[in-house]
Amino acid sequence: MGVLGKLAIAAVALGASGAGAGWMLSAPVRLDAATLAAAAPGDAERGRRIFFAGGCSSCHARPGAEGDDRFALAGGRELKTPFGTFVVPNISQHPQDGIGGWSAADFANAMMRGVSPSGEHFYPAFPYASYARMNPADVGDLYAFLKTTPSIEGRTADHALDFPFNVRRGIGLWKRLHLDASPVVALAADAPEPVKLGRYLVEGPGHCGECHTRRGFDGGTDRALWLAGAPAAEGGGTVPNITPGAALATWSEDDIVAYLETGFTPEFDVVGGAMADVQKNMAELTPEDRAAIAAYLKAVPPHGGGG
Description:
The chain has 13 helices and 5 strands. By secondary structure, the chain is mainly α. The protein folds into 2 domains: 33-178; 193-299, Cytochrome Bc1 Complex, Chain D, domain 2 (Orthogonal Bundle), CATH 1.10.760. The N and C termini lie far apart (61 Å).
């Protein structure tokens, strides 16, 4: 065999080995047994708190839903992004069209690893990159609470994404880069407990960084610009900088607490846009939770400017 033939065979072999390595690296990774045990079905009342901290109804319920309608989680909302259109799924207790047939392990793997019961990657429009930082027991409590919500018939449409974003397997490589359960902001061991709780609520179930932090070309959040504002994922406009280096520099912790509870800024403006739903969720938390969020937002590294 000539030199060219040998080179061709070597190129094919390298390509095949590279493809095999990529296939292995992109494989879904599920939670270990100890974490799954910690995420066993928990307390529904505690789960109600996590439901609002996570803003589940803001995406999965009908826009503008009030009262018990906030727990009708039929999905269907379309999120138009540069990657294509994502359709929010039905997460009601319907056994076929929703997640009523999911086990607690299925739910925990979806929340903390972005893996479906069938073993496929979920797209990170579902903010599991933040939920990966959650306490597994809180995930178990949320599962218990969702079991108390209604079953609603109706499977939602598929996402409408262009190539290569429609190749789910590639999300496994994205996770290798961006799925990190470690805290974003390092705190001293003797940091006040409210600041530690606020970090958990903001970085984990609250997933505030998903909107308030700039993203790179591949859609991963830029930790170096944590909470420093970003272009809105849908439509025009920007999501504001909520670090102490921007508008919040003049807000006290009490101002932030009042805003989260009532929707009024220190200047007596009223919350609007997508933040209106977030504020309604925050109003359902305990006063201690809102104070913790405020304490954390005043403790994060400051960044100047807007989104």
